[in-house]
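USER:
Try writing one entry.

ASSISTANT:
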Amino acid sequence: MSETVSLPKGDRFFEIRFESIGGLGAHAAGQVLASAAVLKMGLNGAHFSSYGSEKKGSLVRSFVRLAPADRPIRTSAPVETPDAVVVFHAALLSNPATFAGLRKDGTFIYNAPPRSVPEELAALPSTVRIIRVDALGIAVKEKSRPNAVLLGTLCAALPFLDAEKVLEALSEGFAGKRPEAVASNESAFRRGAAELETLRGVGRAEGDLPAARAEPAWGYETQPIGAIIPEPGNTVWNDLSTARTGSLPVFNRERCIHCGLCDLVCPDLCLVWEDGEKGGRFERELTGVDYRYCKGCLRCVESCPASALTKKAETPGLAARLRVPLFPELIE
C-alpha cells in the first residue's frame, strides 16, 4: 500500500505543463510522473499530451494534473494555469505561449547550457522560482534522454514528489523493452536533481501570467478573406530551429569540393549556393547553411565525402553566428 503524499496546494489541483518538441520525451515523462503519483504516492493523477499528426520535431505539450486521494479529477482540459512549467528546448522560450498562465508562486525549469539566461525570461513573474539545467548535455554524456534529467530536476524542485518512487517508475518503464537504458536513465535522473541552478532577479512581471487565449482567434467579424494563408507553414517564412535536438551541421568552406551530394539529401533545401563564373566557365559553390530552415537531421554530414560538414553541439547563439541566409531580403 502506497503512502499518501500531501500536496503543497492543499485540496486544489497541482498542475504541471511540459513544453517540448517531439523526440525529447515529454510525453513519456508525463506518463512516468503521473504513474508514480497514482501507483506509488497515493495521489489522484491524470496525464495526456497534445501534438500534431507528425509528433517528432513538432510542438508537444504534456499535461500532468495531481490531486489528493480523496478528490477525484473530472477534467481532461489542458493545463492553462500551471504551478510548474518544464521547457525541454530553449528555442521554445521565444514563444509567449510557453509561459502562459504560470502562477506567480510557481516553478519554471528550462533546459539550457550553463550561463545561458535568455532575455525572454524577463517576461516571467519576479516571484517565480527559475531553474536552469543542462539536460541535453547531461543526457548526451550519460547516453540517456533529456526527459530523465528533467524529471530528476523537477523532483528536486518539488519535494512533495518522491524522487525514488518517480525513478522507480522510470526504471520500470524501460526494464522490459530496453533494460540497458535503466542504469543510464538513473544516472541522468540523479544528475538532473544534483546539477540544477536556481536563478535570481531574472523575471520582471508582477502577479500571475495571463492564460493563453481561450476563445477562437477569429470570429465572423475578424476572420481573414478566403484563400488567404495568414501564417504560412511551408514557405520562406518557416522556421525549423525548434526541430533541432541539440546538434547542427557546421560548414568548412576550405574543405568543400562543391560536389552537391549534400544538396541531394537535404530534405529542407537549407544549403546556400553561390553562382558565378571562374576562368570563363560557370561555377556553383556552397557558401553555408541557413539554420532557419535546418532541422538538424545531419544527412548532409553523413553524405559529405570531404568532411566539409561536421556535427557540432548547438550552443546559444551558434546558429545565428554561422547562418548564411537563403533569402537576405527577408532579414529584418
